[in-house]
Design brief:
Blueprint lengths: L37 E4 L5 E3 L5 H9 L3 E9 L21 H4 E9 L4 E4 L4 H12 L3 H5 L12 H4 L26 E4 L5 E3 L12 H9 L3 E4 L11 E3 L4 E3 L4 H6 L15 H10 L31 H10 L3 H7 L16 H13 L28 H8 L13 H14 L15 E9 L5 E8 L2 E4 L4 E2 L8 E2 L2 E2 H9 L2 E3 L12 E7 L5 E7 L1 E4 L2 E4 L4 E2 L5 E2 L31 H9 L4 H10 L5 H10 L22 H9 L5 H9 L4 H10 L31 E11 L7 E10 L2 E8 L2 E5 L3 H4 L2 E8 L1
Length: 776
């Protein structure tokens, strides 16, 4: 007897707006490459594994969608006789799936148990064909990996050049302001020739081209040594401060007597230098004598595939899922996943999926697509998990993390912590980020009357400014910097300083001494090391070695003693603040406001950067100008009722989504209307009751403080997210994590999908950007 569900299926083809999950299961990382294949729902296009976990059957029974398309893919066997060709551009070679794989398709009914339904049946044929032709979820969400998309700009399109005047060849030989003969940039507006900025790899530069642009307001320049006869070249717009494309480059150069056909490329382009910079990380995959480090496999030793500039995500995720709190929350398996309407769009489901993928060891095995031969006898690295769904979910609605651009790993960590903390899906379960929380106490003392004021701020990390001192470098060598100890950085972080404030008690304008210390310590202390220097007016990241030993060390001396019996407290200004308050660094606040930033943005930036310096806050502000909540006051989780933006509430009400549910949706999504709409549709049973920090009449001060003040406070370096490059928005991130391998403890390098044991981690510590210390 045939399946009775086909005739009544009422199937439709996926539209451009639909996501088709035909690569891996939405609830685990089993995929079309497994022996059982993947079952794609013919009704809603959800992907479910068909093997021992059988999430496809779970989806079918809960959603009443019995018909599925089973997709099984096998690799066409190609022996790797030669090493892969050297990468020459920021792109992935165009190779079709048909060139690499054989694919088998079967239509099944999971309710009837029939697995050989005729896929040419008119009722289902069009849907099957459309599923296979549709872009996969990852392809739809991720544009071409690594391919830099450069565009033109208004300054190039409206370029006004001076009178045609051929430039003598001898005048193109060196900078007009100095003797540099390479890294020369020609102003396309007036023909002035100046040297560029110093570049990675020892390329010299004194920024005379930039100085010319600032003096003349001429924005567009071309790098002479990068011009090819085909018309390719590095074109930079100093007004936009970005690399651009000039479609009329030949015409613009001819104005100065430079003929494209006569030019020869003599220097590396900016893209080539970036590739070379990234490829240098391959050196860390070998020992001192040049031998390749042996790949590791097993539970907790699973790599993550680079989705195109996603190494910032991979490095932070590996460090987080090494923490016990994350392993306890998300490492319990995926046999009973949350009942989410759309698993791919549920944060809890995707974090459980990732926890299973990283910790179980199920996917930590050599890449079967690479065959060992006499020419390549080494064990292949892993294929790596592809966290496409999680990356899309975390980045949704975010101006930066939704793109394919490289991002600041520490800012990503803060964003992810915020999303996890807000997630109410797993009610009653512990918040894994709570292990990272602690309280910093600030003490202000008037220099006049000597009265004091204490204030506390809950944080999940600290910023430390690393002292930068150059040491003499040999000719042609990259600059080197004097090593500093972690203790020096912590001493600076907690050092007393004088701030200019007027005392509310005695009226003195002599100022205050200010000092911040730990009131409590977390189980996992996250430290962001800021290693920034200004070179030729441009802030760049420099590699200052921060000396951190492998042995435990004490932080007891950085614990605040609190108010002392002989100290007199300054009276509160106005009503006493019963709720948690954030007292911004007054000096940094004044500097930021003097630059023209609104006060609410200044306070938010100082809060996000640990209330440290104006420079750190300004850097944060420039990276968060487009945040939807940038002008909303800081929400410290006090007892006050949440007040939604009336304009945003009106927008939701106009769509028929008003009432208490709309208010809660805006609160849960930090005021982002688009995400609030998605939240409302994914939480149909939520009645909109907003949980307050404390019940009516209850003193909010009774809420337990984060962290612990118990002594001793001993910490040990557990993992580091390292960065190599001159900017946190370029270059490459990897993670080093202390792991127990058999009977020994060793450092392990997670370089995207590559996981290897490291013999010497000391050299790599100087590239550390985010430290994770565990309390021991």
């Amino acid at each position: 007897m045939g399946c009775t569900h086909v005739a009544a299926a009422n199937l439709s083809k996926p539209t451009l707006a639909d996501s088709v999950y035909r690569e891996d299961c939405t609830q685990c990382f089993d995929s079309i490459d497994d022996s059982a294949g993947l079952d794609v729902c013919l009704k809603c296009f959800n992907g479910g594994c068909a093997g021992d976990r059988n999430h496809a059957k779970l989806h079918s029974s809960t959603r009443r969608h019995p018909l599925v398309l089973n997709i099984r893919r096998t690799r066409k066997r190609v022996v790797r006789d030669e090493p892969p060709p050297k990468m020459s551009k920021l792109a992935i070679a165009a190779e079709t799936e048909a060139d690499r794989y054989d694919t088998a398709l079967t239509v099944k009914c999971l309710e009837c148990g029939i697995d050989d339904i005729d896929k040419s049946d008119p009722t289902i044929a069009a849907t099957v064909d459309a599923i296979m032709k549709a872009n996969t979820f990852s392809r739809k969400e991720e544009v071409k990996a690594w391919e830099q998309e450069l565009t033109s700009c208004e300054h190039i399109l409206t370029l006004q050049q001076g009178e045609p005047q051929p430039i003598e060849s001898q005048d193109l030989g060196h900078c007009s302001k100095c003797d540099l003969k390479e890294n020369l940039w020609l102003c396309l507006e007036c023909g002035a020739l100046g040297c560029g900025r110093a570049q990675f790899g020892g390329v010299g530069g004194n920024s005379h081209a930039l100085a010319h642009s600032q003096e003349s307001s001429h924005g567009v320049a071309v790098k002479l040594g990068s011009i090819t006869p085909e018309g390719n070249a590095d074109v930079y717009c100093y007004t936009c401060d970005d690399e651009r494309v000039d479609e009329d480059l030949g015409t613009h150069l001819a104005n100065w007597g430079i003929i494209l056909a006569e030019r020869q490329k003599t220097e590396k382009s900016l893209t080539e230098m970036q590739i070379e910079q990234n490829l240098r990380w391959e050196f860390s995959m070998t020992t001192e004598d040049g031998k390749k480090l042996t790949p590791l496999f097993g539970p907790g030793l699973t790599g993550l595939k680079n989705l195109g500039n996603s190494c910032y995500l991979n490095s932070i995720i590996q460090c987080l899922f090494d923490m016990p709190s994350f392993q306890q929350r998300y490492g319990g398996g995926v046999e009973n996943p949350p009942d989410a309407p759309i698993p791919a769009e549920d944060l809890e489901t995707q974090l459980l999926k990732l926890g299973d993928g990283l910790l179980s060891g199920r996917y930590s095995k050599p890449d079967s697509d690479v065959l060992v031969s006499e020419h390549s006898p080494e064990v292949p690295h892993q294929k790596g998990l592809q966290p496409s769904m999680l990356k899309h979910l975390i980045g949704r609605g975010h101006a930066e993390f939704s793109t394919m651009r490289q991002q600041d790993a520490f800012e990503f960590l803060q964003h992810l912590i915020k999303l996890i903390t807000r997630s109410k899906h797993a009610a009653g379960l512990s918040d894994p980020t709570q292990a990272m929380r602690f309280v910093v106490e600030q003490r202000l003392q008037c220099l006049g009357c000597k009265k004091v004021r204490y204030s506390s701020t809950e944080q999940d990390s600290i910023f430390i400014d690393v002292p930068i001192e150059k040491v003499p470098a040999e000719d042609g060598q990259e600059p080197k910097y004097k090593p500093v100890s972690l203790k020096d950085c912590l001493d600076n972080f907690t050092a007393p300083e004088t701030v200019e404030l007027t005392c509310s008690g005695c009226g003195s304008k002599d100022g205050f001494t200010k000092r911040q210390l730990f009131k409590t310590f977390p189980e996992a202390l996250v430290v962001n090391a800021r290693k920034m220097a200004v070179v030729n007016w441009v802030p760049i990241k420099v590699d200052v070695p921060v000396l951190v030993g492998d042995e435990p060390f004490a932080l007891d001396s950085y614990l605040s003693k609190g108010q002392q019996p002989d100290e007199e407290v300054l009276p509160e200004e106005g009503a006493a603040a019963a709720n948690p308050v954030f007292v911004p660094n007054a000096e940094a606040l004044a500097m930021l406001e003097g630059m023209g930033f609104p006060r609410v943005r200044c306070e938010k930036a100082l809060h996000a950067t640990g209330n440290s310096t104006a420079d750190a806050a300004m850097e944060w502000l420039f990276g968060h100008m487009d945040d939807p909540d940038i002008d909303m006051p800081i929400n410290l989780g006090g007892g006050d009722t949440y007040t939604a933006d009336p304009e945003k509430l009106a927008m939701l009400e106009s769509m028929g989504l008003g009432g208490p549910r709309a208010t809660k949706a805006l609160q849960e999504t930090n005021g982002d209307v688009e995400r609030a709409i998605e939240w409302l549709f994914s939480h149909p049973d939520d009645e909109g009751e907003i949980e307050q920090a404390a019940n009516a009449g209850e003193d909010v001060n009774k809420v337990a403080e984060a962290g612990s003040s118990a002594m001793p406070a001993n910490f040990q370096l557990q993992s580091i997210a390292c960065h190599k490059g001159t900017s946190i928005h370029t270059g490459h991130y990897v993670a080093f994590i202390r792991k127990k391998l058999g009977d020994e403890v060793s450092w392990v390098l997670f370089n995207d999908e590559k996981v290897v044991k490291v013999i010497d981690v000391e050299e790599m510590k100087k590239f550390a950007y985010v430290y994770f210390f565990k309390r021991v």
